[in-house]
């Protein structure tokens, strides 16, 4: 157990988590929606600090990130749980996990120092927090990033980068905690439609994701941003929706911001939905370019 950084104490030993925009009110001995944060006697704790479910040495392009240190390799880490319940999640095996039911003592634990040591041994150019939502791993990802920052200060030739692969639903308080130590913010802009987020994700509005992304861009201009829209047939493949996303990126993040439009494949609770036709991806690329985006990439092809 590791005490959470962002929460508010309420009456009767209840607390309000301030890490993501769900802002769960958690009663004593209760768990937040992500099933990774527990209230113990009026104090909120993360149960997954240092608990690594997945680890791999990936090309940065796999995140996907195409225009930050292309050709570099990053040590990619994931944990359990998520603050979203995407019906189409490609990593549902870890993101759907209820951590209150796990025997975490049997899981792989890596300290921040061990992670950085491993990255150095593998000659990784960076570290990415990915596979599931890094915001629920805020305390741990922050300490890993700080470990890297300290080495940068000690060794001039040390230049390891940090990356969050995120659904974009962290609070601005959480962004302010991690942003000073973050190099890349790779965010999913799934749809401009509230209906999409309500039916397939389980949150009320799309606006929070877009607002937070703009907040990162405006307040932390040194952070490199790339956006992804996974296009699902019948849900977010409407030309008007795609045009709206591309236009929003141009207006709020700039025309040089990369946009990845990727193919959906049946998974999790949407195995009855067919894969995205390649022609849809090609059309989305064309839409993005016509809106003025300089870098539009088709993915999962």
Automatic annotation (TrEMBL):
<dbReference type="InterPro" id="IPR013785">
    <property type="entry name" value="Aldolase_TIM"/>
</dbReference>
<dbReference type="InterPro" id="IPR034457">
    <property type="entry name" value="Organic_radical-activating"/>
</dbReference>
<dbReference type="InterPro" id="IPR016431">
    <property type="entry name" value="Pyrv-formate_lyase-activ_prd"/>
</dbReference>
<protein>
    <submittedName>
        <fullName>AmmeMemoRadiSam system radical SAM enzyme</fullName>
    </submittedName>
</protein>
<keyword id="KW-0949">S-adenosyl-L-methionine</keyword>
<feature type="binding site">
    <location>
        <position position="89"/>
    </location>
    <ligand>
        <name>[4Fe-4S] cluster</name>
    </ligand>
</feature>
<dbReference type="InterPro" id="IPR027596">
    <property type="entry name" value="AmmeMemoSam_rS"/>
</dbReference>
<dbReference type="InterPro" id="IPR058240">
    <property type="entry name" value="rSAM_sf"/>
</dbReference>
<dbReference type="GO" id="GO:0003824">
    <property type="term" value="F:catalytic activity"/>
</dbReference>
<feature type="domain" description="Radical SAM core">
    <location>
        <begin position="67"/>
        <end position="300"/>
    </location>
</feature>
<keyword id="KW-0408">Iron</keyword>
<keyword id="KW-0411">Iron-sulfur</keyword>
<keyword id="KW-0004">4Fe-4S</keyword>
<dbReference type="GO" id="GO:0051539">
    <property type="term" value="F:4 iron, 4 sulfur cluster binding"/>
</dbReference>
<dbReference type="GO" id="GO:0046872">
    <property type="term" value="F:metal ion binding"/>
</dbReference>
<dbReference type="InterPro" id="IPR007197">
    <property type="entry name" value="rSAM"/>
</dbReference>
<feature type="binding site">
    <location>
        <position position="82"/>
    </location>
    <ligand>
        <name>[4Fe-4S] cluster</name>
    </ligand>
</feature>
<feature type="binding site">
    <location>
        <position position="86"/>
    </location>
    <ligand>
        <name>[4Fe-4S] cluster</name>
    </ligand>
</feature>
<dbReference type="Pfam" id="PF04055">
    <property type="entry name" value="Radical_SAM"/>
</dbReference>
<keyword id="KW-0479">Metal-binding</keyword>
């Amino acid at each position: 157990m590791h005490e959470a950084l962002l929460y508010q104490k309420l009456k009767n030993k209840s607390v309000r988590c301030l890490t993501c925009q769900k802002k769960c009110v958690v009663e004593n001995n209760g768990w937040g929606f992500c099933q990774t944060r527990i209230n113990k006697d009026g104090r909120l704790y993360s149960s997954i600090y240092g608990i690594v479910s997945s680890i791999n040495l990936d090309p940065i392009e796999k995140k996907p990130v195409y225009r930050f240190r292309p050709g570099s390799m990053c040590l990619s880490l994931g944990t359990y749980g998520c603050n979203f319940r995407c019906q189409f999640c490609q990593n549902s095996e870890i993101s759907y996990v209820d951590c209150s039911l796990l025997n975490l003592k049997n899981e792989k634990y890596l300290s921040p120092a061990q992670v950085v040591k491993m990255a150095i041994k593998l000659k990784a150019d960076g570290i990415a927090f990915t596979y599931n939502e890094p915001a629920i791993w805020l305390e741990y990802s922050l300490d890993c990033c700080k470990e890297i920052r300290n080495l940068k200060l000690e060794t001039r030739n040390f230049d390891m980068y940090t990356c969050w692969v995120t659904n974009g639903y962290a609070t601005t308080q959480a962004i302010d905690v991690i942003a000073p130590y973050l190099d890349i913010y790779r965010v999913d802009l799934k749809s401009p439609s509230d209906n999409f987020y309500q039916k397939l994700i389980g949150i009320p509005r799309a606006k929070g994701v877009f607002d937070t992304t703009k907040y990162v861009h405006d307040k932390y201009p040194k952070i490199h941003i790339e956006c992804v829209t996974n296009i699902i047939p019948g849900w977010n493949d409407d030309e008007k929706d795609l045009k709206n996303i591309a236009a929003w990126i141009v207006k709020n993040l700039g025309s040089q911001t990369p946009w990845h439009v990727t193919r959906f494949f049946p998974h999790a609770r949407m195995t009855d939905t067919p894969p995205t036709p390649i022609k849809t991806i090609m059309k989305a690329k064309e839409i993005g370019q016509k809106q003025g985006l300089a870098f539009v990439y088709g993915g999962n092809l």
